[in-house]
Amino acid sequence: MIRRNAIGRSWLAAAVLLAGLAGPASAQDSWIGSWGASPAFPVGPELNNATIRQLVRISAGGSKVRVRFTNETGTQPLVIGAATIARPGNAPGSIDPASSKPLTFGGATSITVPPGAPAISDPIDLAVSPLDSLSISLFVPRWTGPSVVHPLGVQTAWISLAGDSTTAPTLPDAAESTMRFLLSRVEVAAEGGTVVTLGDSITDGYGSGTDANRRWPDILAERLAKGGGPAVGVVNSGISGNRILHDLPEQMFGPSALSRFDRDVLSVPGVRWVVIMEGINDIGHSGSAGLPEQAVSAEEIIGGLRQLVARAHGAGLKAYCATLTPYEGTVFANYYSAEGETKRQAVNQWIRTGQGCDAVIDFDAAVRDPAKPSTLRAEFDEGDHLHPNAAGYEAMANAVDPGLFK
Question: pTM of the full predicted structure?
Answer without folding.
Answer: 0.92
